[in-house]
Write a structure and sequence with these properties.
about 30% helix, about 450 residues, alpha/beta, seven-stranded parallel sheet, eleven-stranded mixed sheet, 18 strands
């Protein structure tokens, strides 16, 4: 999709698979040698800004990632940084050999080199398909542990580009410098936990924006003549465990919905006084901007059926996901579903491929926007767009935070954002609210920071 068709609400840094990255490099307006020069220069610039003139050891592999390392070493030396280079072996590509030829210093052996305060890992980057040799793993981990700071070029060695799998043990890095675009592994577990801070170096390639890191949302403005209905009405269907829906409804109210009401057969403790409790569950009100069902549903499948008979947009979460049955039941529903891994498998079965591929396949099969939750949350659209959440605090892994997210997304959808944009915006805001709440937070605390 062209960038003009993708609103700026959630589009952040582009993400390319290994194959897409190779295609982008091949169609770049400059030579591959110039791309390598730009990548290595950018790596040196990032390393210098991050670590200053700290003595550096650059580990160079035999391929083009090693070539980037030779270029980076040359530019660090120009800055006056004491820099050494250690190689796994002789360069095997023409580009890497040319880069090696421009390095005027000595080249040590990876087997015998001593550690340095700053380590640059340029052994293997994008495209790795198998684990490293045991001796290489041992040396990389030993040199990383012996450094004060460790920086990875494009990807830490041992990471699979598209899935985020660890093909062999990978030490933790403080900084990863990606070239041209982020790669799926930068935002997929378990690799994401090894990356440290991820920065993007612009080397002059064109990156498709169908896959991207979710960025800060530009939320709908409140019109001067707005009223509670024009700002968005969220109708929540409460089930057997009303506390979960109390969290979700409160989150919807705190996320800018003009009116939140809850269908319930009994009073719900903990709701803000502004949230209206009603005894009926009539969903034919044309003022409804979004229906929310699932949090605290329990064994009340009729509430899901009721939601699916409504023509209004809807967010389906928690227990309701397991009651859908056939994903095709969501076709034409204008729905957002937000499963965690267990709920995802119950609805969509065991799908092949990486988490990103699974999310896209699920969105296509259901016609719904899929928020595949986890430490590496993804938002997939049936039209093929895919948003990767930036890292969120690990302390979000506590009961009720998913209910808060569902309420947030429902409010943003009711306010007029498209399903995909509402889901992306909700995910980004959810993570940032958790950062503000701090490591001792419970789900209720998120409400104060929305």
């Amino acid at each position: 999709m062209a960038s003009r068709e993708l609103s700026p609400v959630s589009a952040g840094r582009p993400i390319l698979t290994g194959e897409a990255m190779r295609a982008a490099e091949a169609s770049a307006p400059c030579s591959l040698a110039e791309l390598m020069e730009r990548a290595g220069r950018s790596l040196a610039e990032a390393a210098y800004r991050f670590a200053g003139p700290m003595p550096a050891l650059v580990l160079c592999g035999p391929g083009n990632n090693g070539g980037d390392g030779y270029v980076a070493a040359r530019h660090l030396a120009k800055r006056g940084v004491p820099v050494r280079v250690a190689a796994l072996g002789e360069p095997t590509s023409d580009l890497a050999r040319a880069a090696r030829g421009q390095w005027s210093g000595t080249v040590e052996s990876l087997d015998t080199c001593a550690p340095a305060p700053l380590l640059l890992d340029c052994l293997f980057g994008t495209g790795l398909k198998r684990g490293l040799e045991p001796l290489v793993i041992e040396r990389l981990c030993s040199l990383a542990n012996g450094s004060h700071l460790a920086i990875a070029a494009d990807l830490p060695s041992g990471v699979e580009t598209d899935s985020g799998a660890l093909l062999s043990p990978v030490p933790p890095f403080d900084l990863t410098v990606s070239f041209g675009a982020l790669k799926p592994a930068h935002r997929l577990m378990p690799a994401m936990a090894r990356m440290g801070r991820v920065v993007l170096a612009d080397i002059g390639i064109a990156a498709d924006d169908r896959c991207f890191e979710i960025g800060a949302p530009a939320l709908p403005a409140v019109a001067a003549d707005a009223h509670k209905y024009s700002r968005g009405l969220v109708h929540c269907l409460a089930g057997e465990m009303p506390g979960a829906m109390a969290l979700a409804a409160s989150a919807a109210a705190r996320s800018g919905a003009g009116y939140v009401r809850v269908s319930t057969s009994r009073p719900i403790a903990g709701l803000p006084r502004s949230v209206v409790e009603v005894g009926d569950a009539k969903l034919d009100d044309p003022r409804i901007g979004c229906v929310l069902v699932g949090p605290g549903l329990g064994k009340l499948p009729q509430l899901l059926t009721l939601a699916l008979t409504s023509s209004r947009p809807k967010v389906i979460d928690a227990e309701a996901i397991g009651l859908i049955g056939d994903p095709a039941r969501l076709k034409g529903q204008d729905a957002i579903v937000a499963p965690h891994a267990g709920e995802f498998e119950r609805l969509f079965g065991t799908l092949p491929g990486s988490k990103a591929e699974q999310a896209l396949a699920a969105a296509e099969a259901s016609g719904a926007v899929v928020v595949f939750k986890g430490a590496d949350t993804l938002v997939a659209s049936p039209d093929g767009r895919l948003g990767f959440a930036p890292p969120a605090p690990a302390w979000l892994a506590t009961a009720g935070t998913g209910d808060v997210l569902a309420g947030m997304i429902a409010a943003l959808r009711a306010r007029g954002m498209s399903a995909f944009e509402a889901a992306c915006a909700g995910v980004w805001l959810h993570g940032r609210a958790a950062e503000r709440a701090g490591p001792g937070m419970i789900a209720d605390d998120l409400l104060e920071h929305l």
